[in-house]
Amino acid sequence: MISRRSLLKTAAVAFGAPMINRGRFSVFANSRTEYSARTLELVRRATVIDMLGLLTLDYRKLSAWEADPGRFGRADFQRLRDSGITVFHPAVGYTEGDIYTESLRDITGWNAFIAAHRPQFLRVDGSADFARAKALGRIGILIGQQNSEHFRTVEDVDRFYGLGQRVSQLTYRSNRIGGGSTDPRDRGLSEYGVAILERMNQTGMAVDISHCSDRTSLDAIEGSRRPVLVTHSNCRALVPNSGRCKTDEAIRRMAAKGGVMGVSMVRIFVRPGGRATIENVLDHIDHVTRLAGVEHAGVGSDVDLDGRDVSMHSARRLDLDGIDYAKKIYELTEGLVRRNYSSRNIELILGGNFQRALAETWSS
Fold first, then answer.
1. What is the mean predicted confidence (pLDDT) over 58-77?
2. Beta bridge partners of 262
3. Which residues pair with 233 in a beta bridge?
4. Among 39, 185, 263, 358, which is disulfide-ready with 35 (CB 3.0 to 4.6 Å)?
């Protein structure tokens, strides 16, 4: 059993930071932000999965890393490690032009990047890879797409699975498969969409409905034989006018099928107006756990370690108030501790729930 003294010593050594009074620590260089010993131990112990976690929202930088792997340096890797995130799901949504070719290029680029940095990264192909990434100190990359329009035929599901894709969001906007969250007609899952859903179930590719319309979401949940995921969304009960947020009915039905909802840290999906902080993110987690059970809440931040306002030079405010996104997992964990979640339940929210749902999806 780890003693409190050894834990504090380990935390100070691991993060290269001095101990702070009353068992609190500053774990980031040049930062006065302090975290409890319990928070540090939980992040250290957990397999943290960000189900919409971006290595960077600066896509020029990402393209440069993929084209010339040597441009991704030790400091870049260390910054990702210091975030506390074990596995990133850095999916993007191609919606214009030749979507098949763009999606193929994206997945090929990730495979090349991972292959060039094998001591640091691990492609997550199956449930055992979560534990492998954690044990080896590597960063797991879970390859996915935020639009399934690259599936020109049902056979393309098998092809992209063979390339390493393990998660696919059915729609970003309306497509052949079904309706998107901005679809005014909300036509639901199409006949072709039903065929894609069935092939994804057969192949073992996880179904994501984050951007799907209400009817398409419910159709997918009802039609799937495996858990359906909401990798990055929030609760419409708390943000009533957002079609991107999920209804209580969808959350309940998703949970009944064994699915998990990753709560986003994007301002407009966290609070409809006014100041938005990590406390408001925690409100969404509280809502999911009260509605469906703690086994169905997770993290899908939908942001990198710099924030959307910085990375995307956004004219519209998208970041939360008072948060450094490089520390978002520590901020979230500290908040869950404040709200009296048990250590076991915090570990489930940080990654255990998605790990279980994906294992069920990927099993033969």
1. 91
2. 298
3. 263
4. 39
